[in-house]
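Our platform keeps sequence and structure together, in a single record for each protein. This encoding replaces a full spatial description with a residue-level series of whole-number codes. We quote a single record here, exactly as it is kept in our systems:
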Amino acid sequence: MNFNKTKAFTLIELLTVIAIIGILAAIIIPTVGSVKTSANKSKTKAQFSQWAVSMGLFKQEYGYYPSIGTSNKVDPDKFFAALTGRTYSNGTPSDLVGNTRRLSFYSPSDSEVTSATSGDATNGLLKDAFGNTDIAVFVDSNNDGIVNTSDSPALSLQSVTPLGGSAVSPSSTVFTASTGVRAGVIFYSAGKGAQPDIVYSW
């Protein structure tokens, strides 16, 4: 007599495969998350660097850095007026923030500007790679090569709020307001949302 035996996985084999998949997922998922966070930090630093270069170009043209902030935070209307010579919607700004010739020093990409059609709450706000719109800005207004408390606005450990989170303040180990930062313009945002995640332009 010839009996046909159907080959199949045993329960132990199935449980072993499921356990291995679970272990691999536990290893891979956090790694993918940290890689994405690292990529967003790099993208934000590059973005801030480009903004600082644009501010420098404005200074070369007009002799001073534009005032693109309100209460030490980037004001999108002032940013667009000063660095693009137009409003977010391509109109004429009511205040050119010193850019009287309406020169374009910078052209923001779509990924840097909030859009309600792309899932953001409002149109025309500037955002970092994490989606944060609360971005601190300070400039070397007295031209001594350092952004510190001698400038106006004076450098401070200004807190920043991440998207959907609570405000975080920079650590005094990163910079102290009196010693400052050797730069012409500095930016920082909350990054992923905790103090160690704050992204600095320097």
